[in-house]
Design brief:
Helix content: 25-40%
Strand content: 15-25%
CATH class of the largest domain: Alpha Beta
Oligomer: single chain
Bound molecules: zinc ion
InterPro entries: DNA_primase_Znf_CHC2, Znf_CHC2
Organism: Flintibacter faecis
Distance between the termini: 88 Å
GO molecular function: DNA binding; DNA-directed RNA polymerase activity; zinc ion binding
Number of domains: 3
Order of helices and strands: HEEEEEHHHHHEHEEEEEEEHEHEHEH
CATH superfamily of the largest domain: DNA primase, catalytic core, N-terminal domain
CATH architecture of the largest domain: Alpha-Beta Complex
Protein name: DUF3854 domain-containing protein
Structural class: alpha+beta
């Protein structure tokens, strides 16, 4: 290997060239906002004398060439050539200077936070909200009692006070990074709650009862009834990810009922309380959602469930795609060692929630 000739520049000049934001300059070190990760403070440390950098947040580090190469997405050889051209004796045109703005900030997306973090943030968020009278009466119409609405933690999407809600969450120590539904305002760096449609917020809970996601049942249905709280395509936003929704399922239960949707499971479970049909529910939150169903099967097996009552909408009798999904659920469950019990009822009641409402609430 031949000796690499010296570069005609130091790291400070390259930091300037690339427009990396320097938050603090100690004279020997620059504390910068790292352009390679979702750094909002000054995690990138640049040692001026040694001409090296390192981010304590994402771990990226190296020398001048690495910084330039990583930033401009070129190899080290090209980085060397370009830096020589920019800073060399001919003082050529800065080839890259305006080509690349600080790393495509529009699309910075954070990886999703852990279930614990999401649960804590979402629980705190819901605790700051209420269920408006319109939604209360709509749910009452569907057969739900006030105390059940409260127990299920159903809330109305906020339309005002959004800033104060976010401030309160931060003051409570909630983490908003990587929690779908929150993103950062690009110019101010302030966190924002992303509400994309008004409706009833339904907590999507995992087997441990943690809220992994929030579904919103929209007031105005355009092409879908529900959407999941998300901040995808926003600066520091995160894409939503639902989990199989559990209600009333406990370790040691031998039987659970399977249906689709958070609200349907919640309602059916609530309506059957105290009846001979009382049973925990698993609601799949996508139709069909086989990968999620696989997760549910593993989890149900882990707590000792033996039998699954399949209670998908009765329109499987006329809708090909619903029937296919139902067949697949039965097949996959049987293959996983469960006793599968498909339940059929009259098409007068579409969902198991309608059926149970008819049986237990409409009297
Ligand atoms: Zn970093």
């Amino acid at each position: 290997m031949g000796r690499i000739p010296d570069l005609p520049c130091d790291i400070e000049q390259v930091v300037d060239l690339l427009g990396i934001e320097v938050i603090r300059d100690t004279g020997t070190q620059l504390h910068c906002r790292c352009p390679f990760c979702a750094d909002r403070k000054a995690h990138m440390n640049v040692k001026i004398r040694d001409n090296v950098f390192r981010c304590n947040r994402c771990g990226k580090g190296g020398g001048i060439l690495h910084l330039y190469a990583e930033y401009c997405d070129v190899n080290l050889h090209t980085a060397y050539e370009e830096l020589c051209k920019i800073f060399g004796p001919d003082g050529g045109e800065p080839v890259r200077k305006c080509k690349r703005k600080p790393r495509s900030i529009e699309t910075v997306e954070l990886p999703i936070a852990s279930a614990e973090v999401r649960d804590n943030t979402y629980s705190n968020l819901l605790s700051l909200l209420t269920l408006c009278p319109t939604h209360q009466s709509a749910l009452k119409e569907r057969g739900l009692k006030s105390e059940e609405m409260e127990l299920l933690c159903y809330r109305t999407t906020p339309t005002t006070r959004l800033k104060r809600i976010v401030t309160e969450l931060l003051e409570r120590g909630c983490i908003l990074d990587g929690v779908p539904g929150f993103y950062c305002q690009k110019d101010s760096g302030q966190w924002v709650l992303d509400i994309r449609g008004s409706g009833i917020m339904l907590p999507d809970r995992n087997l441990l009862g943690q809220i992994e996601a929030i579904q919103v049942r929209l007031d105005k249905v355009y092409n879908q009834k529900f959407y999941n709280l998300t901040s995808v395509d926003q600066y520091y936003g995160t894409q939503s990810k639902c989990c199989p929704h559990y209600v009333g399922v406990h370790e040691g239960d031998e039987v659970v009922c399977l249906t689709e949707g958070v609200m349907k499971s919640d309602l059916a479970y609530s309506f059957a309380q105290g009846s001979p049909y009382e049973c925990g529910f698993v609601g799949l939150t996508g139709i069909p959602s086989y990968s999620q169903y696989e997760r549910a099967l593993e989890e149900l097996d882990s707590i000792g469930v033996k039998r699954i009552n399949v209670m998908v909408d009765s329109d499987y009798q006329v809708k090909e795609e619903v029937r296919k999904a139902r067949d697949r659920y039965i097949e996959m469950g049987a293959a996983a060692g469960f006793e599968m019990a498909p339940i059929t009822w009259t098409q007068k009641q579409k969902g198991v929630d309608d059926l149970y409402k008819h049986l237990f609430r409409d009297k």
